[in-house]
Specification:
Blueprint (H helix, E strand, L loop, with lengths): L19 E4 L2 E4 L4 E4 L2 E2 L4 H12 L5 E2 H8 L8 H16 L9 E4 L3 E4 L12 H5 L4 E4 L3 E2 L7 H15 L6 E2 L2 H5 L8 H8 L3 E10 L2 E10 L4 E11 L3 H11 L5 H13 L3 H14 L4 H13 L3 H14 L4 H13 L3 H15 L6 H10 L3 H13 L21 H10 L4
Parallel strand pairs: 8-10, 8-11, 9-11
Antiparallel strand pairs: 1-2, 2-3, 3-4, 5-7, 6-7, 11-12, 12-13
Helix pairs in contact: 1-3, 5-8, 9-10, 9-11, 10-11, 11-12, 11-13, 12-13, 13-14, 13-15, 15-16, 16-17
Length: 424
């Protein structure tokens, strides 16, 4: 699962951060297309899952019926899509045991659309993915599931499965099970550890394909079989005509030695406040690819916690240069200036973020990050409340981020933490 010391904005090219969302007793793996309740997998039709995905991706915001219809049905499909949408929403509510009268998860706004209203409860006790990835020397690629609702798209899903097997087979250090052996598990209801044991492999790649009109989304996850632990989840969406790029991306995403897995290790050590090891692993990732902006970002956060301010600022500026000054990197720069007592420079960054927010979405948490490092308690709390109102994913950090420690004795912060679901 992809992680960073401070989450970055979604890549506008179509690639999205991997996410496992938890609310109530449910766990939703948005990239694998799965929903579980207290560990048990639930059956949810593809269209209903896509609705849930869209609501979670924009949690706290209204998603119109038109947006949902455009996402689920091709423009040249002549069906009663209004009825189809109602049926998919009803099925989703049935699986979630939710109601329209007293909604806990999905709120209906008459003549407008729907909104996901429940607070998320992300896990912060993460395993070390690199340790598991290094144990994977053989994999089986299970047939990608066709979530399109169109049986004719099965050939496309099977074709992507074959391409993924062929590309992974080119990795000399990895033994990949043949397509013939893997395809026998299509539609078979067996656990991943059981399949791995039968095929004698360390890891399993599973995923899904969702195709509507000329767009296709492919989601894959790499699972360490012995522990049944997700080592990596990724999702990618592009024009279906660019199938070669899709194939290359899937192969890179599931390589156990990939950059995202390596930077995950640094991020996990950061979250555990082991900043020396976070720095070590971030630098190791940069040895693989100096142009990987997230690695510079994680390194900057860890260096800042070690009071290595000049180095932290340099890494933050490199991350900003590589990411074309995205909000997370600018916020990191502002935090570095603030930590050095350079109030003027930090507030100038806040001004740049305000200008950026006129063109692109900037989470209130990013503003709050700079105010946190300025030790401006009132402004920081105000921005955190705005982030809560927008159901910001950044709030998954409030229980573990060191910079927030000076707020923990404040009753307002404690109340916010309870509302988020990460209890003190």
């Amino acid at each position: 699962m992809k992680a960073s010391a401070m989450p970055t904005d979604a890549d506008r090219s179509g690639r999205t951060a991997s996410r496992i969302s938890r609310f109530g007793g449910f766990e939703v793996d948005l990239d694998a297309g799965q929903i579980r309740k207290r560990g048990s997998k639930l059956r949810l039709p593809g269209q209903s899952f896509e609705i849930l995905r869209m609501l979670l991706e924009r949690r706290g915001k209204v998603v119109s019926r038109k947006e949902l219809i455009d996402r689920l049905w091709s423009k040249d499909i002549f069906l009663d899509v209004e009825h189809g949408l109602n049926a998919a929403i009803n099925k989703l509510r049935e699986v979630l045991s939710d109601s329209t009268e007293r909604p806990r998860y999905i709120e209906t706004l008459p003549r407008r659309g729907y909104r996901f209203i429940a607070p998320l409860k992300p896990s912060v006790d993460l395993p070390l993915p690199q340790q598991l990835a290094e144990q994977i020397r053989s994999v089986a690629v299970l047939p990608l599931k066709n979530l399109s609702g169109d049986p004719e798209q099965e050939y496309f899903a099977d074709g992507m499965t074959e391409a993924l097997i062929n590309d992974l087979a080119k990795i000399s250090a990895l033994r990949v099970i043949s397509q013939h052996s893997s395809m026998q598990y299509k539609g078979v209801n067996k656990s991943l550890p059981q399949i791995a044991q039968e095929l004698n492999v360390d890891g399993v790649v599973e995923g899904s394909v969702f195709r509507v009109d000329k767009r296709v989304r492919i989601s894959v996850q790499l699972v360490h079989a012995a522990s049944d632990t997700h080592v990596l989840s990724e999702s990618y969406e592009r024009d279906v005509r660019d199938v070669m790029a899709l194939q290359r991306w899937v192969a890179r995403a599931t390589d156990p030695l990939s950059l995202p897995i390596n930077i995950n290790v640094a991020a996990v050590f950061y979250f555990r406040r082991d900043y020396d090891r976070a720095i070590e692993h971030a630098r190791k990732t940069l040895e693989m690819d100096f142009g990987f902006s997230n690695a510079h970002l994680v390194l900057s956060f860890a260096l800042q916690k070690k009071a290595m301010h000049a180095e932290a600022l340099a890494e933050a500026k490199t991350a900003a240069s590589l990411s074309r000054n995205n909000a997370a990197s600018l916020g990191c720069i502002g935090g570095c200036y603030a930590a050095q007592g350079k109030t003027y420079e930090a507030r100038k960054i806040i001004g740049e973020l305000e200008e950026l927010s006129k063109r692109h979405y900037v989470s209130p948490f990013v503003f709050g990050w700079v105010h946190l490092n300025l030790r401006d308690k009132e402004a920081a709390l105000a921005h955190l409340e705005r982030a809560y109102a927008e159901r910001s994913a950044y709030l998954s950090l409030i229980k573990i981020e060191l910079s927030l420690d000076f707020l923990r004795s404040d009753p307002r912060f404690q109340d916010l933490q309870r509302r988020v679901g990460l209890y003190p």
